[in-house]
Amino acid sequence: MRDVSNVGQGFADEIFRVFAAAHPNVIIRVINTSKAVDAMLRHVSGRSD
Questions:
Q1: Tens-of-pLDDT digits for all 49 residues of the chain?
Q2: Considering the entire predicted model, what is its pTM?
């Protein structure tokens, strides 16, 4: 996807927690995120960095 300025909590949780747990052989790469997207991904993953 290109030019994504934000994502909702439900979408981020579904992709980065639920989907990732169900498909451990799939590598999800996150590159060039906006501050809003990065903040949401940190939120759903429990990271604080």
A1: 678 889 999 999 999 999 999 999 999 998 889 999 999 999 998 876 6
A2: 0.74
